[in-house]
Write a structure and sequence with these properties.
The chain is mainly alpha-helical. It contains 10 helices and no strands. The relative contact order is 0.11.
């Protein structure tokens, strides 16, 4: 109830103008009770992130059924996110200002964001493993690829935040244009000619991306 009320007030009044007291009053609870469940407005948004991430994963999994082409599966996962996020686009820029702060719990790399991040990475692992491309890839790169795909989604989120076209049409076009390119790059990585580049990319990911996501690189990485 508190979270639903907060989302409604954020849409009606804007994030900055909505106080925890106003949220508690509208939800019919005491301010202390509101703070008991959510330590701050930022933690309310984190709760929203968690919920939307699970809604996205459920919607994407339903749409992925019966599809094995990697590019198609990736497109489904990314487009499903745009569909789930669409009702909140109007005030997304306000959230992004907080998420861009590396010390904010809303940062996608924060400890508080780990559950939502893990849910998204798990979805992209399913996108890969359920495809006909997965058995053909370098095993070590395939292990790290879901994290890379999640970072790709973060780039799309940033584009979406600042997209002011009707129904965020440009964001949807961006996904349609870039997804086949990403799929081709991943597909090329399985060829022996590109194996040295794959190894370099793997080490780069292990040294810089995996630590920032709060994961421990595998021994010998």
């Amino acid at each position: 109830m508190i979270l639903e009320t907060a989302m409604r007030l954020f849409q009606e009044r804007g994030y900055d103008k909505t106080t925890m007291r106003a949220i508690a009053t509208e939800a019919g609870v005491s301010v202390g009770n509101a703070y008991y469940y959510f330590a701050s407005k930022e933690h309310l948004i984190q709760g929203f992130y968690d919920r939307m991430t699970h809604e996205h994963a459920a919607a994407a999994r339903a749409a992925l059924a019966g599809r094995t082409d990697f590019a198609e599966r990736l497109d489904v996962a990314l487009t499903s996110w745009l569909d789930c996020a669409a009702p909140y686009h109007e005030f997304a820029a306000q959230f992004f200002r907080n998420a861009a702060d590396p010390d904010s719990p809303l940062s996608p790399f924060s400890d508080e964001s780990h559950p939502a991040r893990a849910t998204s990475v798990a979805l992209f692992r399913e996108v890969l493993l359920g495809s006909d491309l997965a058995p053909k890839l370098d095993a070590e790169l395939a292990e790290l690829l879901p994290d890379i795909l999640w970072l790709h989604q973060m780039a799309i989120v940033l584009f979406w935040v600042f997209d002011r076209t009707p129904d965020t049409t440009r964001s949807r076009q961006f996904v349609k244009r870039c997804t086949p390119m990403v799929a081709r790059v991943v597909n090329l990585s399985r060829y022996r000619l590109f194996r040295p580049l794959v190894r370099d990319a793997k080490r780069l990911i292990q040294d810089f991306i995996v630590p920032s996501l709060g994961r421990t690189p595998p021994p010998g990485g």
